[in-house]
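F.,

This is the one I mentioned.
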């Protein structure tokens, strides 16, 4: 029924979040800055005019390589989130 499906999906996301956390912990604890630069990318929003109505609120994602300084800031799981990794 619907409640079982909701519970299943909720638990599935819990597993995905836990795996992401463990992967992030492994990366920040075991890789040096140069390895992080190779393994990770930074995702940023780029705001452009919407071609349909000219509104400036249209955003797209831009994926960028990390600089050495950015990679050195990645020292905890929270730093991955704070730096848009």
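My design for it:
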């Amino acid at each position: 029924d619907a409640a079982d499906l909701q519970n299943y999906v909720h638990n599935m996301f819990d597993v995905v979040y836990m795996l992401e956390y463990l992967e992030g912990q492994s990366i920040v604890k075991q890789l040096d800055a140069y390895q992080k630069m190779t393994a990770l990318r930074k995702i940023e929003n780029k705001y452009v005019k919407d071609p349909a109505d000219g509104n400036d609120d249209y955003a797209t994602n831009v994926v960028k390589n990390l600089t050495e300084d950015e990679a050195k800031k990645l020292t905890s799981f929270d730093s991955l989130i704070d730096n848009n990794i």
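The first strand starts at residue 41 and ends at 48.

Talk soon.
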